[in-house]
């Protein structure tokens, strides 16, 4: 089941790459939030308790409800254009992502031969990280960069569950709070940027250099 | 429990107090008392007078003690000058930036302390990310376009960087699978104990991710640009805090992982990476020292240079490691002096461009002379501390003559480039049509802090208190170095 959810997670990434509508970006973020929470709950489905449910519940609230809502509000408030002008052809972007994913999946399969990792969640996590980075590189709008950062974070989150790293509850909660505050601050910054510069893409950020 | 009260709970209370009390004087007094208490306790812990209790997640080994003392020292001076800084006539529209100033300083202290004393890499990560969040509003203090851009870049680059560091920590967890550490918490102490069991491939991957990720925060080239923009656009007390303590805390994360790797066969790999990163940072500082036209950026590049030198020293090992540890102390204190006086110059001349500044030595004698001495201190002129620590790093590099030659070449030209800029600011005659930037300069609290810190740098360098030296030797032992 974990594998199925991970594959679904990967499919959202591919959709993310081909779409050029901002609205879809936000709904994909929401879907990923739901999938991640489900992946976290699944191994414990037999013996659920409040303590085990705490982290998935929090991640659901933060990743699937609050953050997408917050980003949606910025998009509406700032009247960001819904269609993104890409700096790369959508087909080439898809090709690049699929190629990277294939390499990741093959290497994960090879690696799983001599290390105890779950190849599919592991590879899905890395695919998300690389897609997040591609989005940051190839898209020009700052709000989309924030989405790229969140996809990267989702990848790390999935990776964390894939390697089953033991983290105390307060660290997990702290990490989630940190990510939320980062996004919150980025949102405020985008607000300020749009009122100062009247545009919200990377071209306005070129004043500081030597 | 007493130590946690002073190091963490009081700063936490002070955050709340600074938020709810709107009177700046109240915010300042509370923050200063908390800073003084923190300094006192860090000193007591450092000197061994007070033995703090250690728990699973908190520990006070020699490395933590040293970095904690540096943090509270830098922080104390920054808070001390802050009230006078905030009450100066405004440069631009910064009134709004002052509201959250003390709150963010206190949050920085709390998070940074937690990062330094944490024994759990996850806790370190959370605390370290919180320090980024606390300095971001401070960078945006001036509320202008440049500071906005600097804040965005810093926030974004460092957040992505620190996300990479987290991947690195997860690799570390992966390296433990099938060993006694499998499924255990990421505790530094237990990982150091059982390091030889860890899987070397994942350990190497872990180091690469952590080093590259945290480099955005340490300021190791080529990940340094966000850091340069941030330190050069932040108000000078915040810049001093970042250069003096934040970079060190990020370096601590890399050192913790290296400490785990020391007993394993992968240590050589980590050392090589640190040497390459260090030398490349020196190279970048060397190139940009001749390019910069903004004196605050110049000091920020000097941080790239010195953190590069420290990383190089850690990578080289032996006596160079000892030098690098002393260098972190001396560099932090010197950067505070430089940023305080650069801030004074910025206030008076209303520009950060070198071309807009002239005749500082005569127009602002206190600031001018202290800036000059700060410059002497940072370029390792005796008797300032950096002279001695750099000497140790060079001594360690003797076994790698080519590297030593390259380092000395870069350092010499960094010295030339920096002195060209600084002497130009200090000595160029006043343009015919220009008004004096300030009526007559009086001795103020910034000068007081600079004088004390410069004297401290001389005393620490020349007399080298045995407690400091012993602590550094203890750290070296923890890193498997016997002299």
Task: Give the count of helical stretches of chain B.
Answer: 19
In terms of DSSP E residues, the strand content of chain B is under 5%
Mean pLDDT of chain A: 89
Distance between the termini of chain B: 36 Å
**Gyration radius from CA atoms of chain B, angstroms:** 21 Å
How far the N terminus sits from the C terminus of chain A, by CA atoms, comes to 53 Å
- Helix proportion of chain A: over 70%
Largest sheet of chain B: none
Secondary structure: helix percent of chain B: over 70%
Please write the string of helix (H) and strand (E) elements of chain B. HHHHHHHHHHHHHHHHHHH
What number is the mean pLDDT of chain B? 94
Number of strands of chain A: 0
Assembly state of the chains shown: heterodimer
E-strand count of chain B? 0
Key traits:
heterodimer, A: 210 residues, mainly alpha, B: mainly alpha, 19 helices, 75% helix
Notes on the protein architecture:
The complex is a heterodimer of chains A (210) and B (483). Chain A has helices at residues 2-18, 22-41, 50-78, 90-112, 119-138, 142-163, 169-197. Chain A is mainly α and 210 residues long. Chain A has one domain (2-199). In chain A, α4 runs antiparallel to α5 (119-138). Chain A is globular. The model of chain A has no long low-confidence stretch (mean pLDDT 89). Chain B has helices at residues 2-20, 24-47, 62-86, 101-117, 121-139, 145-175, 188-193, 200-218, 225-233, 236-261, 267-289, 295-316, 319-349, 360-363, 365-378, 385-397, 401-427, 445-463, 466-478.
